[in-house]
Structure formats: C-alpha cells, structure tokens
Amino acid sequence: MNEIERVAREIAQSPEDLIFIHGAGSYGHAPAKKYGLPGKFDPIGLRNTHACVAKLNSLVVDALAKAGANPMPVHPLSSMILQSGRIKDFFVEPIAEMVKRGLMPVLHGDVALDISQGAGIVSGDQLVSYLARALNAGVIAVGTDKDGVIFEGAPLKEITRERLPELGSALGGSTAVDVTGGMKGKLLELLELADTGSNSIIFNASKEGLIARALKGELVGTLVRT
Amino acid sequence: MNEIERVAREIAQSPEDLIFIHGAGSYGHAPAKKYGLPGKFDPIGLRNTHACVAKLNSLVVDALAKAGANPMPVHPLSSMILQSGRIKDFFVEPIAEMVKRGLMPVLHGDVALDISQGAGIVSGDQLVSYLARALNAGVIAVGTDKDGVIFEGAPLKEITRERLPELGSALGGSTAVDVTGGMKGKLLELLELADTGSNSIIFNASKEGLIARALKGELVGTLVRT
User: Fold this and answer.
1) Which of A61, A78, A81, A115 to mutate against chain B (most B CBs within 10 Å)?
2) β-strand pairing of A104-108 with A20-22
3) What is the pLDDT of residue A176?
4) Which element (helix H / strand E) includes B224?
5) Which residue of B79, B104, B116, B122 is the best one to mutate when testing the A interface, meaning the one whose CB has the most A CBs within 10 A?
6) Which of A19, A134, A127 is nearest to A76 (CA)?
7) What percent of chain A is modeled with pLDDT above 70?
8) How many whole angstroms separate alpha carbon B39 and alpha carbon A35?
9) Could you tell me which residues are beta bridge partners of residue B104?
10) What residue spans define the domains of chain A?
11) Facing residues of B21 across strands?
12) Do B74 and A73 touch (CB under 8 A)?
C-alpha cells in the first residue's frame, strides 16, 4: 500500500463533515518552479502546472473512493480569484453544499488567476486557513512529515504569534522543493487563523494512526493557538 | 486527424476573447443515464460522471493547446450551484479574468450540487445561455451535427419563440443519447437568451470551415432571434 492509499484509508475511517485539502506536492512544486510561477505569467506553465496538480487530485480522489469515502474534486482554479497572491474571492457554496449532502470535498494547492499580477499560486495552507474561517471548522489539522513545529530538535507543544520572532530561522521547509513556504508558510497561515479565534494543529501524518486522532481533536502535534 | 483535433484547429484559428463550451457527449450522457442522473442522488454516480466529462475536457484542452490556443479548463462542479436543475449561482470571475488575460476558458456540461434536489446536471447549452448573458457575449454560436434546426427536411433560416409551438414534435434529439434535451433543449436555452436581446446561431460544426465562419458572426445555420 502506498502512502496516498494509507492516508486515504485513515481519512475514510474518520468522522463525516470533513473537507480534505492536499498540497501540490512534488506534482505541483516542480513544474511551478520550472515555469517561474508565481511571478511570471506563462499560459503554458499555468496549464501544465494545473494539469499536474489536478492529476494528483484525481489519484487522491480515487484512493479515497476506494477506501469507502464519498470524495468530490474541487479545483481552486475554477472557483477563486487571487489579489497579490492572496485569496480575494472564493466561491465556497459548492463545498458547503457537498458537506451538507455527505460528500467530502477534496481540494488542492493550485494555480489561480490573480487580478493584480495575472496569475499566482494558492497553497493548500492558504486554502485551509480560508476555508476553516469561511465554513467555521470545528477541528483543523494540518498533516506534514514532521512531528510538528520543530525547535531545537523537538516538536513544540504549542505556538503563538508572540513566539514567532524567537523561533526565527529555525523554521525551515517541511519538504525538499516547496515554492509556497514550507513549515514557515504553514505556520503563518495558521497564526492568521488563530488571530480570528480558531486553533489548529500541525502533526505528523506519516505516522500511522495519527490522522484519525488528529481529526478527533487530540493534540498529537504542535497546537497553533490564539 | 480526429474530430476533436479538427475542431480544436478551427477554434484556435479564430478570434481571441473566446470562451469554449463543450457538451458532455458520449462521455457524460451514458454514465449519467446509467446512474439515474439527474433525479437520483448517488455519490458514486456523481463522481464517476464528473470524472468522465473531466476526461473529455482534458482531451479538448490538450487538443486546443496543441493547435496553438491558450486553453484553461473550468469545471462547473467547482464553480456553481443549481436550484431545481437551473443555475442559481455561478462564480464567473475566473472565466472573465482568463479572457481578459488572453486565455481561453474551456467549460463542459457537468454534474453540480443542487440546493433543492441534492445534485443535478448542467448542460453545455445552459452554460452557453448563462455565460453569454453574464459576460455580454458578442457572438454566440452553437455547433451541432445538423445544419441547424431542421423542419420538414430543411434547416430553418431563423426561429423565434412564437414559432416554437408550430414546430412541435419535429424537434428531435441532435445525437443518439442525450439526457439534457437534444435540439429542443438547445433551442429552449437559446430562446431564453434571445428573450434578453441576444441572438445566436445553431450550425453544423461537423462541416469543415463553418466554425471559423460562425465565430465571425456569419449566419451559417439557424438564427435564434428575439
């Protein structure tokens, strides 16, 4: 069983009313870098990068369906507009309606049109923060391949905006190639969410069993709090 | 060269500021019928039907790109909500922004969430009518495999709402399997558009050269007018 299948199985066993967002992973970050995204407006780069992340999305949707969930793909390119790299408008009604009808929306980091710079990238992390707020999520769990926010060799139990300067450059990327900011990018999105009163956790999704516990609200990683 | 490639080549040679909408074709109508859509709310049927039309969309997008256009896929499932089978809300900003940036949005007949009946089908024809109005289209050309609206063996030069009862049952389907109404469905959508002051034509896209002429506004089929 590959990692996508294992994650899909853990997700499918979890409570309903779930929105699943995955990053672009190696499928998206490599072509984005190749075509100079974000920053350069290149129709071929946009189309190819989107095709790569849409392909990853369909692998995830298929794995979730095989595991017994009722996933439905949702593509940010079709449903949002950016401004200077941040979500300006995002039509979330189909997502809300899917959840209401027992379907699991499956979104992904994507390219999107940007009214100020032509096009840009919306990370899975920005989607998490925006949707959690827009749809008033109860539990917000961000899976990575680390045990949480690592500082001086160990995962922090919790983090607040006040502690950010002190951590400084200790926050590296969570994976090899990541054009959207790695662990620091994740943290900045989740701190913005915390500013609005919603806590979240960053945990290690590569350790079997932790996804199910995280989705129940257990503090299995670093708590990002108000 | 297959038909998709030929159509793509004709489209790619046409003026800019073009939105391309294709139907679900055999890719969508067959699974929709199999799963009892619209009418039956079946998560597996929705997902599989969407996957089939998304596959057709990606073939069309690839063919357009190969022909030299700058196509970008847009999926109605991600960007609209239906009510009783009609478009209730449709987030058209990404489509407008694509056109503004020299990209060609490529949409397709799709399944979509429906606030009154769970889920439904939005035909390419309904998309044409809605988008032409929302984005104030200059030329609206609907390609079929017939020379227009056929009545008593010949294509009508023009048609208005007043003549509809007289034509009656002469309006059959334009293809073998079509869950969204065939030629009559097209005509009803375009008459609704005509009611708002926008004329359109129904023409034969299977005849080489007619797409380019239709997109220039030539009356190469049946004019559907106010």
Assistant:
1) A78
2) parallel
3) 45
4) strand B222-224
5) B79
6) A127
7) 93
8) 44
9) B71
10) 1-137, 138-226
11) B107
12) no
pLDDT at A16 over 80: no
Q: What is the ipTM of this complex?
A: 0.93
pLDDT tens for each residue of B75-125:
999 999 999 999 999 999 999 999 999 999 999 999 999 999 999 999 999
- Our CA-based measurement puts residue B27 at a distance from the nearest CA of chain A, in whole angstroms, of 17
CB contact under 8 A, A43 and B81: no
Region of B19 (left: φ > 0; alpha: ψ -120 to 50; beta: rest) is beta
B61 in contact with A at a CB cutoff of 8 Å?
A: yes
- Is A16 in the B-facing interface, judged by CB distances under 8 Å? no
Mean pLDDT of chain B: 92
**Which residue is associated with the tokens 């939005």?**
B122
Q: Pick from B79, B118, B119: which is nearest to A91 by CB?
A: B79
For domain A1-137, the CATH class is alpha beta
A81 near B CB under 8 A: yes
pLDDT band at B29 (very low <50, low <70, confident <90, very high): confident
| Among candidate residues A214, A168, A193, A107, the one with its CA nearest the CA of residue B78 | A107
Query: A147 in helix, strand or coil?
Result: coil
| Coil/strand/helix, residue B141 | strand
Q: Which of B78, B83, B108, B115 to mutate to test the interface with A (most CBs of A within 10 A)?
A: B78
CB contact under 8 A, A93 and B97: no
For B152, half-sphere exposure in the C-beta direction (CA atoms, 13 angstrom radius) is 4
Type of residue at A181: G
Among A92, A72, A95, A98, which residue's Cα sits nearest to residue A80?
A92
Give the global pTM.
0.94
B106 contacts in A (CB within 8 Å)?
Answer: none
What is the predicted pLDDT for the residue at B26? 84
Q: Which residue has the tokens 């996508």?
A: A4
Q: pLDDT > 90: what percent of chain A?
A: 77
Find the largest Cα–Cα distance for chain A.
45
